């Protein structure tokens, strides 16, 4: 199975409404260290320009991507980006 980024309609609404992203913007999903606990890494998002994109998807004129250096965290799974309240949430798909 090919790794992909899946962006739900509610996530798109969240990105454009609560988060203030506009059509044509590029959003990087990256892996960041958050703690030494049971799950030491988490996903983050930022506006950025791809250097070595490993996976890219375009949803309602927003481009989402992950760099090659970050896809190890997916372990071959796809990533579903969703919204819960005003928070962006990530689920393996």
Explained architecture:
The protein has 93 residues and is mainly β. The protein has one helix and seven strands; from the N terminus they run E-H-E-E-E-E-E-E. It has one helix at residues 9-16, and strands at 5-7, 26-33, 41-47, 53-59, 62-67, 79-84, 87-92. The protein has a four-stranded mixed β-sheet with strand order 3-2-5-4, with no helix packed on it. Strands 1-6-7 form a three-stranded mixed β-sheet. The chain is globular and about 35 Å long. The chain starts with a strand and ends with a strand. The mean pLDDT is 91.
Give a short synopsis of this structure:
With 93 residues, the protein is mainly beta. The chain has one helix at 9-16, and strands at 5-7, 26-33, 41-47, 53-59, 62-67, 79-84, 87-92.
Task: Tell me the β content.
Answer: over 45%
Number of helices: 1
Taking all residues together, what is the mean pLDDT? 91
Cα gyration radius (Å)? 13 Å
Secondary-structure map with pairings?
Layout: E1 5-7, H1 9-16, E2 26-33, E3 41-47, E4 53-59, E5 62-67, E6 79-84, E7 87-92
Parallel strand pairs: 1-6, 2-5
Antiparallel strand pairs: 2-3, 4-5, 6-7
Key traits:
93 residues; mainly beta; three-stranded mixed sheet; Fe-S cluster assembly protein HesB
């Amino acid at each position: 199975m090919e790794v992909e980024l899946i962006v739900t309609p509610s996530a798109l609404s969240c990105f454009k409404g609560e988060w203030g992203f506009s059509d044509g913007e590029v959003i990087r999903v990256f892996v960041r260290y958050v703690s030494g606990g049971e799950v030491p890494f988490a996903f983050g998002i930022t506006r950025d320009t791809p250097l070595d994109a490993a996976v890219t998807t375009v949803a309602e004129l927003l481009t989402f991507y992950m760099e090659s250096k970050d896809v190890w965290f997916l372990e071959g799974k796809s990533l579903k980006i969703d919204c819960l309240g005003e928070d962006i949430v990530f689920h393996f798909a």
